[in-house]
């Protein structure tokens, strides 16, 4: 079914109160909330590779009105984010309707996934001193000893300007009080932030939560390979708990806080 027609039906049939998608404004695609009162605005619905965390907008709307029925234009990573937000009771799945869109339009596949995206280009200096965007955590661990890995991460972290772009765009960052703004952890008013504590705090909080959408890396003006960092911590979560964030609507192993449980330690590489 045509996406515009499908979105209009959701609104006209009162299945949703608002539909979150994209429209063009002054030549730029921006997130927009379409409503039944202005349903013809959906004729301007845009679908492209541009991405914003529509799920984060949905969370903000749901906090203001928990009964609001929300439609969302969703890619695969959006669905993973929604699954995790359902798990942590940030959104009610009964109030969410999704219209799925091909994540990466491709001449090779009508339903391509992120593997069809053109790999990022990593400069030679960055390859020599930092981290290749296209390395996997396992390859990175295998190719460099612990001292070299630390040196390369420090090279990347020292570029940080503490813009909070990684946190602000993350669809699964929903803490009311952010540890990155706690004065005992991250000294306020100091640029650049203390290395590496700023990014280690965030990486710790992404363990078991990051859905590998890559928005943080897209937003980073310093080109820090954040996706690799969070993949590393999620690999550890998978090795210990067998848990992949956002794959299904299931309780996170970190939701056991406050309960008496017994865990069996598993060996892992460091």
TrEMBL record:
<dbReference type="GO" id="GO:0016491">
    <property type="term" value="F:oxidoreductase activity"/>
</dbReference>
<dbReference type="InterPro" id="IPR017896">
    <property type="entry name" value="4Fe4S_Fe-S-bd"/>
</dbReference>
<protein>
    <submittedName>
        <fullName>NAD-dependent formate dehydrogenase subunit beta</fullName>
        <ecNumber>1.2.1.2</ecNumber>
    </submittedName>
</protein>
<dbReference type="Pfam" id="PF00037">
    <property type="entry name" value="Fer4"/>
</dbReference>
<keyword id="KW-0479">Metal-binding</keyword>
<dbReference type="InterPro" id="IPR017900">
    <property type="entry name" value="4Fe4S_Fe_S_CS"/>
</dbReference>
<keyword id="KW-0411">Iron-sulfur</keyword>
<dbReference type="GO" id="GO:0046872">
    <property type="term" value="F:metal ion binding"/>
</dbReference>
<feature type="domain" description="4Fe-4S ferredoxin-type">
    <location>
        <begin position="201"/>
        <end position="231"/>
    </location>
</feature>
<dbReference type="GO" id="GO:0051536">
    <property type="term" value="F:iron-sulfur cluster binding"/>
</dbReference>
<keyword id="KW-0560">Oxidoreductase</keyword>
<keyword id="KW-0408">Iron</keyword>
